[in-house]
Write a structure and sequence with these properties.
It is globular, with a radius of gyration of 15 Å. A hairpin with a 7-residue loop joins strand 4 and strand 5. It has one domain (about 5-100): 2-Layer Sandwich (Folate-binding fold), CATH 3.30.2270. Helix content is about 15%, strand content about 30%. It is of the alpha+beta class. The longest helix has 10 residues, at about 90-100. InterPro entries: SoxD (IPR006279), SoxD_sf (IPR038561). Pfam families: SoxD. This is Sarcosine oxidase subunit delta.
């Protein structure tokens, strides 16, 4: 079972208490965007085998959205952080790099 710590209320929540929200750190395009930008926002997602950044909502708890860094192969969780963060925090990137040398995400390591 997947266990994620909510960075807002501090609860270690099982996945049954959470609602998945898809990939984190997407550039959201709405009115006034080009058709290509809006298409990419709706349909183009990374689906890596390995480290992935996701959005989760603590649905049966505080109700807030947060981000999680985890491995899709092993379900290993590298950390969680607030949804207002525009990119993964350095301590989480360091934790990933320690276990996955050479790992990169969108030019960051």
């Amino acid at each position: 079972m997947l266990l994620l710590n909510c960075p807002y209320c501090g609860v270690d929540a099982e996945e049954t208490e959470l609602s998945p929200g898809g990939e984190a750190h997407l550039t959201r395009h709405g009115p006034g965007s080009s058709e290509e930008e809006f298409h990419d926002y709706l349909f183009t997602r990374e689906n890596p085998r390995g480290v992935h950044f996701e959005r989760w909502r603590h649905a049966h708890g505080c109700g807030k959205w947060f981000h999680a860094a985890r491995c899709t192969q092993t379900l290993e969780v590298f950390g969680t952080y607030t949804a207002q963060t525009s990119e993964p925090p350095q301590h989480i990137r360091d934790a990933i790099s320690e276990k996955r040398p050479g790992w990169q995400w969108r030019g960051l390591s």
